[in-house]
Amino acid sequence: MISRKYNNDYRLTETVTKTGRIxxxxxxxxxxxDYTDRAAAAxxxxxxxxxxxxGWAMFVGALFPMSxxxxxxxVVLPFVFAALPLWTVTETAFLALTKKPPMIHSDADRLxxxxxxxxxxxxxxCGVPLLGELGTLLFAPEKLNRGDIVFCALCAGLFAxxxxxxxxxxxxxxxxxxxxxx
Length: 182
Known about the structure:
By secondary structure, this protein is of the alpha+beta class. The chain is built from 5 helices and 5 strands. α1 runs antiparallel to α5 (146-167), α3 (83-98) runs antiparallel to α4 and α4 runs antiparallel to α5 (146-167).
């Protein structure tokens, strides 16, 4: 199914089959996109893949320690919702690793626009639990234990993963290229 945004990138062609039926096919006629710097793109794709794997390891690892402050809703709830932006970063990393240039318009848009839309909320959703842990440290230090240190370290690591993934977007800059030869 083609979204309305990319409808003009396709043309319908009619062919007659052996049985005499008319078959309509959608043929891509839109712009093709390639990386502006292939070496930087290769590095960025590798870093994004590592960020996605490390992010999931930190996310799951932060849920295991028995910590006092992480039982508070204003600490654990934003952290749990950080899985949604982390999924989008993982999906974008998978797209960057699997799609070989030249790319069609819809893939190029997905690659360039999803990363900032996922990383900024992810950084916010990881920063709020850190602020909650800091508030607990200031106002109720008796609730903190060793599990809170592990939770904070992994939450800060996940924040860094989102920041690093956002910085890798520059390496994935695309430019319009000539159409692919069949």
